[in-house]
Amino acid sequence: MSIIFSFIFIICVIFSCVFLSPNIVLESITNSAKGAIENICIIASMLIFWSGIFNIMSNTKLLSKISKKLYSVFSFLFKKDEVSDKAKEYISLNLASNIMGVGNAATVNSLNGIEELQKSNKDKKKLNKSMATFILLNTSSLQIIPTSMISLRVLYGSQNPSAIIIPVIIVSVISLSVALISLNLIWRFYE
């Protein structure tokens, strides 16, 4: 794949230099690289901040209290015999990260959650419904405060960076609902 992308990049640069001024091409490449670095810094800072917050919370009783309350909201989606207490904690952390809009911080918790769910899985070669539900919750990611997007909107000078909160809530609730309905319909044929 890297060979294909390298080839496409080289062809684009050659055509741009032939049909445009080489200064425009170099300026565009430089500005794109600068924008990419700024985006990485913003997203990395949010990831570091929220990972630190979750790490502090995991060393206190606060995390277990929050995870129990958050999991109780979504517990009807999971089979009780397929989810251990440690898996519940990871699922709750993942959901909390996604709700706060820092999906990058949710990655570690989602991987740990799947590992814990796999431990209680009877057939190690197939997903159980709790694993499929957790993957679906992670990917559809219910968001209430899209912090990463708000940060990017601040970076690019938006006049009202938090204006996306209501549309994001609506879209994420719709996507989560459709995903859960689809999973339940498909799971009937999978079993």
Q: Can you offer a commentary on this structure?
A:
- The chain is mainly alpha-helical and 191 residues long.
- It has one domain (45-190).
- 77% of the residues lie in helices and 0% in strands.
- The chain contains eight helices and no strands.
- Helix 2 (22-58) packs antiparallel against helix 7 (147-155), helix 4 packs antiparallel against helix 5 (103-119) and helix 5 packs antiparallel against helix 6 (129-140).
- The chain is globular.
- The two termini are 36 Å apart.
- The model has no long low-confidence stretch (mean pLDDT 82).
Keywords, please?
single chain; 191 residues; mainly alpha; 77% helix
Number of continuous helical runs: 8
Helical content (DSSP H or I, runs of 4+)? over 70%
Distance between the first and last residues' Cα:
36 Å
Look at the helices and sheets and give the structural class. mainly alpha
Strand content: under 5%
Count all strands and give the number: 0
Shape: globular
**Major sheet summary line:** none
Q: Give the overall average pLDDT.
A: 82
Radius of gyration computed on alpha carbons: 21 Å
Uncertain regions spanning at least 5 consecutive residues = none
Order of helix and strand elements from N to C terminus? HHHHHHHH
Number of domains: 1
